[in-house]
Specification:
mainly alpha; 3 helices
Length: about 110
């Protein structure tokens, strides 16, 4: 373990003394874990992550106006201007946003 002088309080671990590496070595030495377990776990985890991404990509997104709602009874002028600027930006660059996944406006 080395304390990084450039990042106050940040710890840099070497491969040998990293807590996760030490724990893996500990359970492997006792026969509780193996390289085949590791490969199987990595494969299963990868499938789970990809399935979660696929599901998330199909989920509809809240309308971007929703981030301006529900905080103020009357939206301040500054936020109205920001919302109008965002509308302009999205209109100009709509090809770069997943507009087909955004839910319609509430109001």
């Amino acid at each position: 373990m080395v304390v990084d002088p450039h990042h106050r309080g940040e710890v840099t671990w070497g491969d040998k003394d990293h807590p996760i590496s030490r724990f893996k070595r500990y359970i492997t030495e006792r026969g509780w874990w193996s390289e085949s377990d590791e490969k199987e776990w990595q494969s299963e985890s990868r499938k789970n992550v990809l399935t979660a991404f696929e599901k998330a990509e199909k989920t509809k997104l809240a309308h971007y106006h929703d981030m301006f709602e529900g905080v103020y009874e009357n939206l301040p002028e500054k936020l109205r201007r920001q919302r109008a600027e965002l509308d302009q930006h999205i209109e100009e660059y709509k090809d770069h946003y997943p507009m087909d996944r955004i839910l319609p406006k509430n109001s």
